[in-house]
Amino acid sequence: MVSSTLNFLKALPALVVVSCVFGCDGGSGLSPVKGTITLDGKPYPSAQVRFVPESGRPSIGITDESGAYTLMFIRDEKGAAPGNYKVDVTTVHVSTSDTTGGKEPAEKILPKYNTMTELTATVEPGENVFNFDLMSR
């Protein structure tokens, strides 16, 4: 009994190394996804970019001043699961209650990029970059 326990303990470090080599992605199965959103060739800041799978939870990113986004799956987990997605892009509006009586400004992004999106993406294992150049007309 003591001999088999000692043998197991000797083999344990090797088992840990092998399991990490073949499966240390944090267990999430997510692939990093980033890209840039432009509107009429110019970076589009403050846009919400959603990758929506056929079933399951979407991954979402918000563009910065340069139009760049990085997808987040949940809390601090970045990326999206490999698979096919519909992609929608909408403008994130800051509170307008003081300046416009609570009415949000009109959406600059056409419905074909959000409510009736034509955008798609296939996320592969590993790094993914998806740039979308949207047109306002």
Description:
It is a single chain. This protein has 137 residues and is of the alpha+beta class. It has helices at residues 2-23, 97-100, and strands spanning 33-39, 42-43, 47-53, 59-62, 68-70, 72-74, 77-78, 83-91, 119-123, 128-129, 132-134. Strands 1, 2, 5, 10 and 11 form a five-stranded mixed beta sheet that branches. A four-stranded antiparallel beta sheet has the order 4-3-8-9, with no helix packed on it. Strands 6-7 form a two-stranded antiparallel ribbon. It is built from two helices and eleven strands, in the order H-E-E-E-E-E-E-E-E-H-E-E-E. It has one domain: Immunoglobulins (Immunoglobulin-like). 19% of the residues lie in helices and 34% in strands. The longest helix has 22 residues, at 2-23.
List the helices and strands and how they pair.
Elements: H1 2-23, E1 33-39, E2 42-43, E3 47-53, E4 59-62, E5 68-70, E6 72-74, E7 77-78, E8 83-91, H2 97-100, E9 119-123, E10 128-129, E11 132-134
Parallel strand pairs: 1-10, 1-11
Antiparallel strand pairs: 1-2, 1-5, 3-4, 3-8, 6-7, 8-9
Keywords:
alpha+beta, Immunoglobulin-like
Flag low-confidence runs: 14-25
- CATH-defined topology: Immunoglobulin-like
> What is the overall number of helices?
2
Gap between N and C termini? 76 Å
General shape: globular
By CATH reckoning, the class would read Mainly Beta
What portion of the residues fall into strands of 2 or more residues?
25-35%
Could you tell me the number of beta strands?
Answer: 11
CA radius of gyration is 22 Å
CATH superfamily: Immunoglobulins
Please tell me the total number of domains.
Answer: 1
Helix content: 10-25%
Overall CATH architecture: Sandwich
Overall average residue pLDDT? 84
Structural class: alpha+beta
Describe the main β-sheet briefly.
5 strands, mixed
Order of helices and strands: HEEEEEEEEHEEE
